[in-house]
Structure formats: C-alpha cells, structure tokens
Amino acid sequence: MTDTPAPHDDEPQGSPDAPREPTRCGFVALIGAPNAGKSTLINALVGAKVSIVSRKVQTTRALVRGIALQGAAQIIVVDTPGIFAPKRRLDRAMVTSAWGGAGDADAVALLVDARKGVDEEVEAILAKLGELKRPKLLILNKIDMIDRTRLLGLAQDINARHPFKETYMISALKGDGVDKVRESLGAMMAPGPWLYPEDQISDAPLRILAAEITREKLFERLHDELPYESTVETDQWKVMKDGSARVEQTIFVARESQRKIVLGKGGQTIRAIGEMSRKDIAEAAEVKVHLFLFVKVRENWADDPERYREMGLEFPRGG
C-alpha cells in the first residue's frame, strides 16, 4: 500500500479530482505606535523575516509587504511605520505613509502593546480610526507580560473607544495566538486570484531587504550610540559564476564621530555587524553571500528627496 502525502497547510486541500477551494486575496494594514511589535508579528504571520525588528523605535520607515498564506487565502500584510507625533521631515513622511497604507487596505489591524495600554500615541490612533471605512481588528500584543485581569480590562476599554470586528490577544515574539489571527485575516479576504506566486514571501526586492537587514544589525549593535536617522543602501548585488552573490553596501551617518562609532576600534564593530547581516541576507536570498560594508558621512541626508524615493516615501515639503 502506498502512502498518500498529506497536503501542505498552505495549499487548498482536497483530492486532485475534487474542486479546489476558490482562492481569496487582499491587503491588511498593520498599524500601531512605535515598538508595538508590528515587525515581529508580520514575520510570525509570514513565517520568515520580511521586516526588520529592533528595540529602537521607528525603525520601519516605508511600507513593507509580507505575503502570508492561510488555506486558499493569500494575505498581503502591510507593515507600516509606527504612528507617532511627527517632529521632523522624515517623521512626517513616515506617519503619512502609515496612514496611507491603512487607507488603501481591505482591512486594518491595530496592534497595541498590552504593557503600555492606551497611552497618548494609541489614543491619537483611536481618534483617527473612525475615518477608515474598513473592517478593523484589535490585536493586544505582549500578553505574557501582564496580568490577565488587566488585559481583559484593556480590551474592554479600547473596544469602548472604537468598535472592533474582533479582538485577539497574542505574543508575537513567542507565536502564541498568531495562528488565530492568520485564520481570521484569511477569512476576511475577498474572493479573487492570488497576486503573488505561492513561494513569494515579500514584494521587497532583495537589494532593499538586504539593506534593511544590515540596518537592523546596525541598531542591534549600536542601539544607544547611533541616531535612528542612519541609513543603509545596497550599491551592488552581483551574481558570481559560482552562483554566490557579491553584495556591497554603504552605511550613511550624519557626522564623522558616528562613522568612527560604526567602524569601532580596529574595525571590530563593522566586522561584527557585517557577519550578522551576511548570515541573514544569505538566508533570505538562499545563496552564499559575500558582503562588503562601507561607512560614509552624508550630512543632512534626511533633507534629500532622492533618499525618500529610495525608501518609498513621499518627500514632505517645508521644514
């Protein structure tokens, strides 16, 4: 007797002769205050790294789209920059991008750090949510870090301020409750063809994802020493004869003193950042990677429209 292989979880199930479940597809905007855990959640939903994670606030700058599968549904999750009170030009561009992503989506999921509860940033988001005529989910994250009684009270409080279609309680870092969120989002997607191939997990080109990975490692290593305005660009992605990739990237900082911090004594810091980044880029690209990092000073890069276009942001006029 020959065993029949079980169908993959990410494929519409049934025998070859049975009608396949109609495909569904749509966009979900994941919004919230900085450091609510949006990037961690999108990576958990997709099952792979598609958005950088850092304890430094406001590291997600542009709209990052991760592609998750749930049965016959393809869920395109848009990881938006954290919504906060903007003070600088880059801040304004990020917040505009976040609300724009929410307005264009088929559904909106508000992620709230349960430990912080309803602070000024969450209050500001809730006040504006009514303008979005989309189905909305409330997701309370980091539930393993607070008392259950307080958690239930928080859920009631937020739903009293704005009616959500459903409320979920999760730990994105541990994966607890993430499957339930994915199932709910899959059910909300409208009938229609998938927009991406089954094995694609993000719409970000490898060059951009590679730059984001290096930026993540930069912040991991130098969290308290480097302003978040620092940026990374992939200058070259060259496929070699043996199939490996030669990747050249430049880390741009605002001052010479920051360049010295990134380099470290005898180049130790930049080597450590490069090694961590190379491993993650190779995993994402599924090829061997030779990574070369350079550090340059570029003052006032946050006032350069070209830099915004490279990040997929609209350049705000005015100071």
From TrEMBL:
The keyword Nucleotide-binding applies. It is a peripheral membrane protein. Residues 24-191 form the Era-type G domain. Pfam families: KH_2, MMR_HSR1. Residues 79-82 are annotated as: G3. Residues 222-299 form the KH type-2 domain. SUPFAM superfamilies: P-loop containing nucleoside triphosphate hydrolases, Prokaryotic type KH domain (KH-domain type II). Residues 58-62 are annotated as: G2. Residues 1-11 have a biased composition (Basic and acidic residues). Residues 141-144 are annotated as: G4. GO terms for cellular component: cytosol; plasma membrane. One of its GO terms (molecular function) is GTPase activity. It is found in: Cytoplasm; Cell membrane. Monomer. This is GTPase Era. It comes from Alsobacter metallidurans. The lineage of its organism: Bacteria, Pseudomonadati, Pseudomonadota, Alphaproteobacteria, Hyphomicrobiales. The gene is era.
